[in-house]
Amino acid sequence: MKKLFVTILLVMAVCQINAQQAKYVFYFIGDGMGLNQVNTTEMYLGEMEGRIGIKNLLFPSFTVASYANSHSASNSITDSAAGGTALATGTKTYNSAMGVDTDKNPVESLAEKAKKAGKRVGITTSVSIDHATPGSFYAHEPSRSWYYEIANWLPKSNFDFFAGSGFLKPEKTHDGKDAPSIFPKFEQAGYTMARGVNEYKAKRDGAKKMILMEKADADQASLRYAIDRKSGDLTLSEITESAIDFLMKENAKKGFFLMVEGGKIDWACHANDAASMISELEDMDNAIKVAYEFLKKHPKETLIVVTADHETGGLSIGRQSGGYTLNLKALSHQKQSIDVLSRYITDLRKQNKVTWEDAKALLADKMGFWKELTITWEQEKQLRDCFEETFTKNKVKFDENLYSRTEQLATVAKNVMAEQAHLIWGTGSHSAAYVPVYAVGAGSKEFIGKMDNTEISRKIAKAAGIKW
C-alpha cells in the first residue's frame, strides 16, 4: 500500500511537471526597446485619455516583469547582431557577429534546438528577414552585413515559416559581386513564397514551408512605419496570425517555437522620432495580443516572453526646460514619421519661389506647429534659420542615422517636437541601459529576477523542455 501511495505521488508530480511545460513558445523581441520606451508609450496613452499616469499596454502587465543586462563580449554597448545572438543562442559574442562565438565558431540557436526537438519553428520580423535579429536565429556569419550569405542559411535551417519585408541583397555577395538569386534556392528547398496576406492565404494549403513577404512593389528593407501605414500594407499582427495559422496546420504534436521581432522600434529610436517609436510599440503590443489570444485557448501549454536586444536613443523622459512636467500628448499632432516629413520637405523644395510661409503651412499641417501647438520664439527661430539656410541660400543638407537620411529642416522639426513633449534623446545610437523582460504562461516563473540576456533563451528552453 505504501509503495502504491509513493507511485501515485510520483505520477502526480510527473503530470504536474508536464502540465507546466510550454508546448507553444512565443519569443517577442522589441529591437531598441528600453524601459523608458515602454514607459513613455504607456504615459502617452494615459495623457491621451486626459489623465496623469499610464494606460497599460498588454505585455508590461504580464505576471512576470524583470530586466536584463545587454552588453556584448566586445563592449558594454551591444549592436543588434551581438544582442540578437545572445538572445538566440545564450552566448556572448563580439559586435557585428551573427550566430557565432568570439572565435567565429557557429553556435546553435534556441530555434535550431527547438527544431531538433520536433517543434515547428517560425522566424518573423517587421524588417528584412536577413537582418540582425532574425538572422541570429538561423544563420552563422562573422558579420551582420553579409546579407546574401545570411540568406543562404535560411534553406539549411529547414524552419517551417519565415516572414518579414523581404531580403536586402538577394543577388549580391557581401563584397559586391553578382551572385545567383536566393529565391530559386528557397524554392528548391521546398519553400513556398507569398507576397502579402492574400497570397499567403491562397498558397497556404499547398505549402509545406512558407516565406511570407511584403508585396513586390513595396519596400523590401522593412514594413512601413505603423504611423505611415496604408491600406494593404503587411503588418506585424498579420504576420503573427499567419505564423500561428501555418505552424498549427499540421504536425504540431510537439508544439512550436515562434520568434517575432518588432524591428522598427529601433529604427524610430535611431531617428529620435518619439511619435513613430510610440506607434511601433503599440503595433508590437497588438501582435502580442494575437499571441495572448492563443494563450487563452492553451493556457497550460503556452509561454510568451517579451524582451529587447538593447536600448536605442538614450531616451530621457523629462527635460530641464520643462520643469517637473511632461507634455507627451503633443506627439499626437505628428501625422507621419520624420522620414516621410523629410520627403514632403524635399517635394516642397521642387516648387518655385518657396517662402517661409509655405514651409510654415507644411509644418503646421504635418506637425501641428502654430495650429495645435504653441511654438516659442526660440523654436520658430530654429526652424526659420534652417529654412533660410537650406531653402533661401540653397545649402541643402541631410542628416543621416543608421537607417535614414533626412532633410535638415525635418531634423529641426523633430527636435522642436521633442522639446514640446519634454523629452530628451541622448544619442542616435545604442546605449548600455538595462532591457525589460516580461513573461506570462507556462514556465514564466523562470524569468523572475534580474538576469543576463544570455540566460533568456536558456530559461525558455528549460520551460519548454528543450534540451540545451
| Rg measurement, Å | 23 Å
Strands, count: 16
CATH class of the largest domain: Alpha Beta
Return the CATH architecture of the largest domain.
3-Layer(aba) Sandwich
Question: In which range does the helix fraction lie?
Answer: 40-55%
Overall 3D shape: globular
Derived from helix and strand composition plus strand pairing, the structural class reads alpha/beta
What amount of the residues lies in strands?
A: 5-15%
The CATH topology of the largest domain turns out to be Alkaline Phosphatase, subunit A
- Largest sheet: spatial strand order: 5-6-4-3-7-1-8-15-2-16
Average pLDDT figure = 94
Tell me the count of domains: 2
The number of helical segments is 17
Query: Main beta sheet: strand number and arrangement?
Result: 10 strands, mixed
Specify the CATH homologous superfamily of the largest domain: Alkaline Phosphatase, subunit A
- State the low-pLDDT regions, or none: 4-19
- First CA to last CA: what distance? 39 Å
